[in-house]
Q: What sequence folds into this?
């Protein structure tokens, strides 16, 4: 069988690109509307309202800095004396911000179709577009948190260099992985209530299986190999390489995550294609 020519491949990629662009043009207004509603609903009825979108990340950063630096005095070796008292806070914040964005997004997307059953059954909207509003809302919170984090680093004199330019690429891969996994679980959760309960139980376990509050140096060598299979370990390790150690992360881990993400995306859309009609009727 003859292999496709370069021209055929270019035409295929061009068609896919046109379809993707057309899809985004059609669904972007809905995604933005739902994202805005997602952010508003979080603090609905509170006195400060939308101000909490800024206050919550700021308070979290201050807690991590004050508790783990000023009070506990936790330290890591290998950094300059002028920022030594803050090194554990930097280590913790760079990991926990990424984890929080992932965990909140995954939990919300898993429950999304069930919680928005009324809208899904009444409005013929794209099921693939709905999780994007959750991801976009959490990304906004994450970016606000990173701005406060960067301000804190500048305040204590910790260097911010060009390696930060690679953070958006790691974040994009993390968001794609979260979308693919969450979308698959959201479809299954319509038929199996245990999926939602299982995600709620497993996320705290997943947190402690990820080196976020502890350093991976304390992990036995035999266990470190298992920990490295943890997808969130790859992402959080990449953030710390860029922020703390100011060097590019190893490509093998992120390339593996890219392959896993593509496989999960294929599985999610395969599930959607097989079950979409029944899914809407089951809600």
A:
């Amino acid at each position: 069988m003859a292999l496709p020519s370069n021209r055929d491949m270019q035409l295929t990629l061009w068609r896919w690109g046109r379809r993707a662009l057309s899809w985004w043009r059609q669904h972007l207004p809905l995604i933005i509307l739902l994202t805005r509603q997602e952010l508003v609903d979080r603090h609905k009825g509170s006195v400060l309202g939308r101000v909490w979108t800024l206050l919550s990340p700021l308070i979290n950063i201050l807690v991590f800095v004050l508790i783990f630096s000023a009070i506990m005095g936790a330290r890591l070796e290998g950094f300059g004396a002028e920022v030594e008292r803050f090194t554990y806070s930097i280590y913790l914040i760079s990991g926990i911000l990424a984890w929080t964005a992932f965990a909140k997004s995954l939990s919300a997307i898993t429950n999304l179709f069930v919680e928005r059953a009324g809208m899904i059954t009444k409005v013929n909207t794209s099921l693939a577009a709905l999780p994007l509003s959750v991801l976009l809302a959490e990304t906004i919170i994450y970016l606000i948190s990173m701005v406060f984090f960067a301000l804190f680093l500048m305040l204590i004199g910790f260097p911010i260099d060009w390696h930060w330019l690679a953070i958006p690429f790691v974040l994009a891969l993390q968001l794609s992985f979260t979308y693919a996994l969450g979308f698959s679980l959201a479809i299954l959760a319509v038929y199996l209530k245990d999926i939602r309960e299982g995600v709620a139980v497993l996320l705290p376990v997943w947190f402690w299986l990820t080196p976020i509050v502890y350093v991976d140096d304390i992990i036995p060598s035999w266990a470190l190999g298992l920990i490295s299979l943890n997808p969130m370990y790859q992402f959080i390790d990449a953030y710390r390489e860029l922020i703390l150690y100011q060097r590019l992360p190893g490509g093998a881990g992120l390339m593996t995550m890219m392959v896993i993400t593509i496989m999960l995306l294929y599985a999610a859309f395969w599930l959607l294609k097989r079950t979409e009609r029944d899914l809407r009727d089951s809600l």
